[in-house]
Amino acid sequence: MSPLSIPSPDHSFAVFPVWIFQIHIYALFILAGIIVAMLIVNRRLSARGGEPGIVIDIVLWAIPLGIIGARFYHVFTHLGDYFYPGADLLNVFAIWDGGNALYGSLIGGAIGAFIGCRITGIRLWSFADALAPALLVAQAIGRLGNYFNQELYGLPTNLPWGLEIDPSVSPAFPTGLPADTLFHPLFLYEIIWNLVGVALLLLIERRFRLRWGRLFALYLVWYGLGRSWLEAIRIDPSSDGFLGIPANIWASFAAIALGLVLFFVQGRRHPGVEISVYREGRGPKGVKTPEEVAEDEAAEAEARWTDEELAGTAVEKAPTSETTSK
């Protein structure tokens, strides 16, 4: 073992009792990532004119659907782990044991965000741009949960910062390798990649003021590039694939392609400045939209005209002093 090698936490830390509950540290890191991401998005949307706290109304849809999407994407790409003779099918729903795919969460979360944005009046692409760096932060935090579960590592390595894996804990540990074999710490690589991505996205956003979903497009490209490389050296024997290529690599290629298309299409469709994070005709509670202001001004003008007309009519009909004397 190298003196710089990374020891994996004792498996007893992965699950610990609190009163009558079994707390899974993987779930705690996922929850921490969600909370941090919400705080970041709330601040970014509020800075652009969004109502403070409106992100909660959106994530109430995005988070549940994102979790469902993450779990079922993982199950569908690891069918052999859940469907075999004598398998307990309830394990399909055991998200606390790990196995939640990021690309599935993006699909499910996007559906939830679309619903939440329609309800709140927030532009979906405005929300996506505010979310882009926050997603990378949340993913970096969540990877610490993979570290405690000893479930995200790469090929064997002689590098001094190799990751130690307990063969009795990780079912993916390659058969025939010595117990002291070191592996690429993919969880750490992805944490670094994601945090570098946060810095780059914020720098690019400040320099070019990207809006209309183009910052989110760069997120897809950045994450897809990093994830495709990490998946290429990952040990995940149960992962299904196509043409010998794991499903997550195909998903990474799709993310890169979608990001590039989205970036250039939105750049052509919306070359101007994004005036508001709200859709046309919608705005923060208690704050009138330009359309509502115009309607109120028109109503006031009509009311003034009516009052003046009535006053003029009353003057015409009022008896003069000459008529009264007669």
Automatic annotation (TrEMBL):
Q: Does the keyword Transmembrane apply?
A: yes
User: Which stretches of sequence are listed as region Disordered?
Assistant: 282-326
Q: Which terms are listed as keywords in the entry?
A: Cell membrane, Membrane, Transferase, Transmembrane, Transmembrane helix
Q: Which residues fall in a compositionally biased region of kind Basic and acidic residues? A: 282-291
Q: What is its main location?
A: membrane
Cell location: Cell membrane
Q: What does this protein do?
A: Catalyzes the transfer of the diacylglyceryl group from phosphatidylglycerol to the sulfhydryl group of the N-terminal cysteine of a prolipoprotein, the first step in the formation of mature lipoproteins.
Query: What protein does this entry describe?
Result: Phosphatidylglycerol--prolipoprotein diacylglyceryl transferase
